[in-house]
From TrEMBL:
<keyword id="KW-0812">Transmembrane</keyword>
<feature type="transmembrane region" description="Helical">
    <location>
        <begin position="66"/>
        <end position="86"/>
    </location>
</feature>
<feature type="transmembrane region" description="Helical">
    <location>
        <begin position="262"/>
        <end position="290"/>
    </location>
</feature>
<keyword id="KW-0472">Membrane</keyword>
<feature type="transmembrane region" description="Helical">
    <location>
        <begin position="155"/>
        <end position="173"/>
    </location>
</feature>
<feature type="transmembrane region" description="Helical">
    <location>
        <begin position="122"/>
        <end position="143"/>
    </location>
</feature>
<feature type="transmembrane region" description="Helical">
    <location>
        <begin position="185"/>
        <end position="215"/>
    </location>
</feature>
<feature type="transmembrane region" description="Helical">
    <location>
        <begin position="418"/>
        <end position="445"/>
    </location>
</feature>
<feature type="transmembrane region" description="Helical">
    <location>
        <begin position="383"/>
        <end position="406"/>
    </location>
</feature>
<feature type="transmembrane region" description="Helical">
    <location>
        <begin position="302"/>
        <end position="321"/>
    </location>
</feature>
<protein>
    <recommendedName>
        <fullName>O-antigen polymerase</fullName>
    </recommendedName>
</protein>
<feature type="transmembrane region" description="Helical">
    <location>
        <begin position="92"/>
        <end position="110"/>
    </location>
</feature>
<keyword id="KW-1133">Transmembrane helix</keyword>
Amino acid sequence: MTSGLRAAAPASAPRTRDARWPAAAAVVVAVLAGVAAPATGPLLTAGLAVVALVAAAAYRPIFATYLYLATLPLVAGIDRGKFIPLVRPNEALLALLLAGAGLGGFLRWVQGRPLPLRARRVDLPLAMFVVLATVWPLASMMLRGHHPHGDDLAAVLPVCKLTALYLLVRCTVRTEPQTVRCIRLVVWPAAAIAVLAVLQTLHVGPVVSALATLWPSDSGVLGERGTTTLGSSIATGDYITISLTMVICCAGNGLLGRRERLVLGLTLGAGVLAAGQFSTWVAAAVAAVVLLRRFPGLRGRLVRMLPIAAVAVLVGAPAFLGRLDGFGDGYGVPRSWLGRWDNLSTFYLPRLGDFGFVTGVSPNSVLPAPETWRNEIFLESGYLQFLWVGGIPLLVAFGWLSFAVLRATGRVRADSGAVGACAITLQVGWWIVLVLSLIDIHLVLRGAGDLLFTLLAITTGGTNDDRDP
């Protein structure tokens, strides 16, 4: 069976020295930025770095995708507004890379080259979901006499970012080697944060101290769960689980080296436990069910993999055992679960019950806390989040998008190459979202949401017209 990738454009004439000057200029500017830092201050240095990034992305748009994926788990957990008002560093980086890639694409279009973007069946439900998740909530607020504030505008940024990332990957990832590089740029950084999660839950002092500087925890003490540089144990768990699924899918399609897969599998398997989240373990169970149905041959290999799995369990066990202790507090279930239900029944369900579920309540689901021991209250239910933000229209749009995504993966998953591996990973990841949205909004989680939309772009953009997902 063919790899399912569109054929690359015919090779042009050999590049001359003049044709390579933009890349050389980007490198020179980046070097000058570092040299000039002590003398000119951070502002000029940042300006030179911005010019270098934009120039490199304009000259080679695939560079934008590579750089974003490689740095994603390292910078996505830094708080919004920490360095740049209203946005996270990864959002600012994506904006710069998009500007460069867009500039390069425009210049190529002026030269007569075709745009590397064609409509797919999934684009219409995706566009409807984006509109109902961004424009509709703000319009609904104004129609009800409320004026959106900065927090409301910031609340719609994640969906805008994911849409922009989807377009970037659709336009830049065009060949099998590029897809394989993207896979490696996902799984190896994921292995790095899996190691961080293990070290964090083992209370390794330097690691915990380093994480406390820029990546605050979403779940209390930094050593209790593997929040890592994503700043969230839930996001860390999803990111590692999806990456582990990708490694297994690559193994099923004969991609990556055997030793590479072994090291990645061992590391990521330990990270799944070290995340310390029940939702992560449920996600791993969902992934196992889908993968065993897709790769029946894996069942026979499970016995041979038990020694490796045992090592991963031992390494990641501290966080797992620590979470199980929550059932012994005398409440029957962990106290965090009781607090979650109390938040829903006290602060969210009453406002949704007053016909708020029809058109939505607000694009921002974070509420100020009336108590002194906490500052904010979070809506911890994915499907209720859809109703809170955009009402029934947004929930229906998510259902339509889910149907389109699963249909698209069904058309491409038989591909024996990198696109097929990405399609199966996307299918597993989307089923995880459908299941876990009962308890959290996993679709737009930092890091994990980026992976899902990257996989969606590769699955749909990297296929032949006869499949047209």
